[in-house]
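REVIEWER CHECKLIST
Item 1: Sequence provided? yes
Item 2: Single chain? yes
Item 3: Sequence as submitted:
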Amino acid sequence: MTVVNAEVRLGRLLPLADPDRDLRIAESAAAKVLRRAADDIPGVKAATCRLTPAEDDDGTKRVAVTLTVVAGLDRPLPNRIDEVRRSVLYAAERTIGLRVAAVDVTVTDLLDPSPPTGPTGSGPHTPGGT
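Item 4: Structure as written out by the authors:
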């Protein structure tokens, strides 16, 4: 039963872009790689990643990626989201080998822009107390 439960947690198996072989990757493994690709963009933290099988008109199997992130506003948000989309698309196609139909990114929250202060909040911390 443990083996069956572990297999269910993997999520669905998604087809990889290899027409000669029937290669697949677990949705949970692919989502982890794609969340990391979003996290690689400064000022962005990935929250969720869902992958849904999609198919072109010609029958080519693809995957639609839906990602939610939190992002900072220290740079224009549309530019930052474009970077996330490019990073996720690159990771999906080049690192994993998925054919991607779309990458939809939704910002669900904003990162706090204030820099952390010292222990007392009164200025920079100096080691040794002096």
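Item 5: Key structural point noted by reviewer: The CA atoms of residues 118 and 127 lie 11 Å apart.
Item 6: Recommendation: ____
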